[in-house]
């Protein structure tokens, strides 16, 4: 696609939409050229930081009318380059649209601007009887970014992913109009759900400006059980049995001793359990103590046949529990610290097929001589798999990682899985998309993209390649 290059006239016209010159950045720094991984870097020609819907509307319409690429950007915690301005143009940095607009406990909702961080939402609700239930590990991510990737997180098994917690979106489309998709009402059987189409679209169809969240009452009782196993495969194989037993956990996470060792070096700390090479973290919440005790007893009974060792049961607020969750949430950073370069895929497969993916990872490590640490969400089949460059040259790493990614996508497809469970496709994986999902399916998505964005200016080059 040939895009219009920003001229001085364009800059002057766009500047007239923004009241504060400090939010109109004509010489972007490297702060705006990367995401969490820095695998690919791309600098925009201009950064605009809007503070209200009117500013967003004017900028988006101008960009579309003048064929200028425009990329919505949150807090840059993504891993697949979805926020990169690969064609230059405008980076629409949403971080100053960070207000709580309405707290409405009677409807169990809360409305916020798209640039507010998860951390800020948690702090706002800390003294209130309600919570926003999704728990992605990146607490400094913006809610708009979470909506755009349909982020999952640690509680998806019981409460669902981001999509299940969004009642309403306000979105600016390329005609410059602000649209409301969804409502505060719980149910809808009222035609196409455009709200759900926008969720997970990675900012390619419009610019989300406001989000109405579903709130839950805070659970009365919350506990964690850390269950060690002789091997990681033993741990993973126990999960379908736990879920089939009638237990409905909040969380079922897996991690192995190899990644825990990396965390201990990174954090200069010690994991509370020394025995075992594979671990399941089982989280339970309930209204009464009797309820969680019954579920825990059932789960611990089930895992015995998978060689489970003695579980460590902890209250959610205990120091040991906080350390274990700190370890889990910092695993990505620990792996990243252990190697010069790192890439990631987060394929998602049916939960009973996780061991097959882990076996394939071990085969690829030996075959291609690359370190591939991993961990993930055992309860929903979403694996976080990391490719470490270590001593490889850039050329060797690029070739080897491409082979690993291709092979693991083949594995996921053969197991009726998906390319990504929560991190998205972005720019980094767009060239794999059509091969995985097929031409006809991808063509349908291209038609949807063209309907919403006829000039292909909103976050171009992401998810799949336009023809």
Describe it:
With 467 residues, the chain is of the alpha+beta class. It has 3 domains: 1-218 and 429-467, Uridine Diphospho-n-acetylenolpyruvylglucosamine Reductase, domain 3 (2-Layer Sandwich); 221-337, Alpha-Beta Plaits (2-Layer Sandwich); 342-414, Alpha-Beta Plaits. The chain has 15 helices and 18 strands. The chain has helices at 8-15, 53-65, 118-125, 143-149, 156-159, 194-198, 232-237, 239-244, 257-267, 289-302, 319-337, 354-368, 394-414, 430-437, 439-452, and strands at residues 24-25, 46-48, 70-73, 90-93, 100-104, 109-113, 130-131, 166-172, 178-182, 207-214, 216-217, 221-229, 251-256, 278-286, 312-315, 342-345, 374-377, 382-388. Strands 15-12-14-13-17-18-16 form a 7-stranded antiparallel beta sheet. A 5-stranded antiparallel beta sheet has the order 5-6-10-8-9. It has a 4-stranded mixed beta sheet with strand order 1-2-4-3, covered by helices on one side. β17 and β18 (382-388) form a beta hairpin. α12 (354-368) packs antiparallel against α13 and α14 (430-437) crosses α15. The longest helix has 21 residues, at 394-414. The chain is globular. The termini are close together. The model has no long low-confidence stretch (mean pLDDT 96).
Helical segment tally? 15
How large a portion of the residues is in β-strands, by DSSP E? 15-25%
CATH architecture type of the largest domain? 2-Layer Sandwich
| Overall residue-averaged pLDDT value | 96
Examine the coordinates and then state which fold CATH places here, giving the name of the CATH topology of the largest domain. Answer: Uridine Diphospho-n-acetylenolpyruvylglucosamine Reductase, domain 3
What structural class should be given to the helix and strand makeup? alpha+beta
Shape descriptor: globular
* Rg estimate, integer Å: 23 Å
* Total number of beta strands: 18
* CATH secondary-structure class of the largest domain: Alpha Beta
Tell me the distance between the termini: 9 Å
How many discrete structural domains?
Answer: 3
Q: Strands of the largest sheet, in order across it?
A: 15-12-14-13-17-18-16
- Give helix % range: 25-40%
Low-pLDDT stretches are none
- Major pleated sheet: 7 strands, antiparallel
């Amino acid at each position: 696609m040939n895009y219009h290059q920003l001229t001085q006239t364009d800059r002057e016209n766009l500047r007239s939409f923004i009241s504060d010159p400090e939010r109109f950045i004509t010489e972007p720094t490297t702060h705006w050229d990367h995401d969490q991984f820095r695998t690919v870097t791309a600098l925009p020609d201009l950064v605009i930081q809007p503070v209200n819907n009117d500013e967003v509307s004017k900028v988006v319409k101008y960009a579309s009318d003048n064929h200028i690429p425009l990329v919505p950007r949150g807090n840059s915690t993504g891993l697949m380059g979805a926020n990169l301005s690969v064609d230059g143009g405008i980076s629409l940095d949403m971080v100053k649209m960070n207000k709580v607009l309405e707290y409405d406990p009677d409807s169990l909702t809360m409305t916020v601007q798209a640039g507010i961080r998860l951390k800020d939402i948690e702090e706002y609700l800390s003294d209130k009887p309600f919570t926003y239930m999704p728990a992605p590990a990146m607490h400094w991510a913006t809610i708009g970014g979470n909506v755009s990737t349909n982020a999952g997180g640690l509680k998806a098994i019981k409460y669902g992913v981001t999509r299940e917690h969004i009642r309403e979106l306000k979105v600016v489309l390329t005609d410059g109009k602000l649209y409301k998709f969804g409502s505060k009402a719980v149910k809808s059987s009222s035609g196409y759900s455009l709200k759900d189409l926008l969720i997970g679209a990675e900012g390619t169809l419009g610019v989300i400006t406001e989000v109405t969240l579903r709130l839950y009452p805070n659970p009365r009782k919350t506990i964690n059980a850390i269950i060690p196993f002789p091997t990681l495969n033993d741990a993973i194989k126990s999960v379908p049995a736990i879920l089939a037993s009638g237990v409905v956990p909040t969380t079922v996470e897996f991690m192995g001793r190899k990644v825990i060792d990396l965390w201990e070096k990174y954090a200069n700390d010690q994991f509370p359990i020394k025995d075992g090479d594979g671990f399941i973290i089982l989280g339970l919440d309930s209204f009464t103590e009797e309820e969680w005790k019954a579920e825990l007893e059932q789960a611990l009974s089930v895992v015995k046949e998978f060689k489970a060792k003695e579980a460590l049961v902890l209250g959610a607020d205990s120091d040991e529990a906080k350390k274990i969750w700190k370890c889990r949430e910092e695993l990505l950073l620990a792996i990243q610290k252990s190697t010069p370069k790192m890439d990631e895929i987060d394929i998602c497969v049916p939960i009973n097929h996780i061991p097959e993916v882990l076996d394939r990872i071990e085969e690829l490590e030996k075959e291609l001589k690359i370190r591939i640490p991993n961990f993930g969400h055992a309860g929903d089949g979403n694996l976080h798999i990391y490719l470490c460059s270590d001593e490889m040259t850039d050329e060797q790493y690029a070739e080897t990682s491409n082979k690993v990614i291709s092979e693991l996508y083949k594995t996921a497809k053969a197991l009726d899985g998906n390319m990504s469970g929560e991190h998205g496709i972005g720019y980094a994986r767009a060239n794999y998309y059509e091969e995985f999902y097929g031409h006809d399916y991808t063509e349908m998505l291209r038609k949807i993209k063209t309907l919403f964005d006829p000039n292909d200016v909103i976050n171009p080059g992401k998810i799949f390649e336009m023809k």
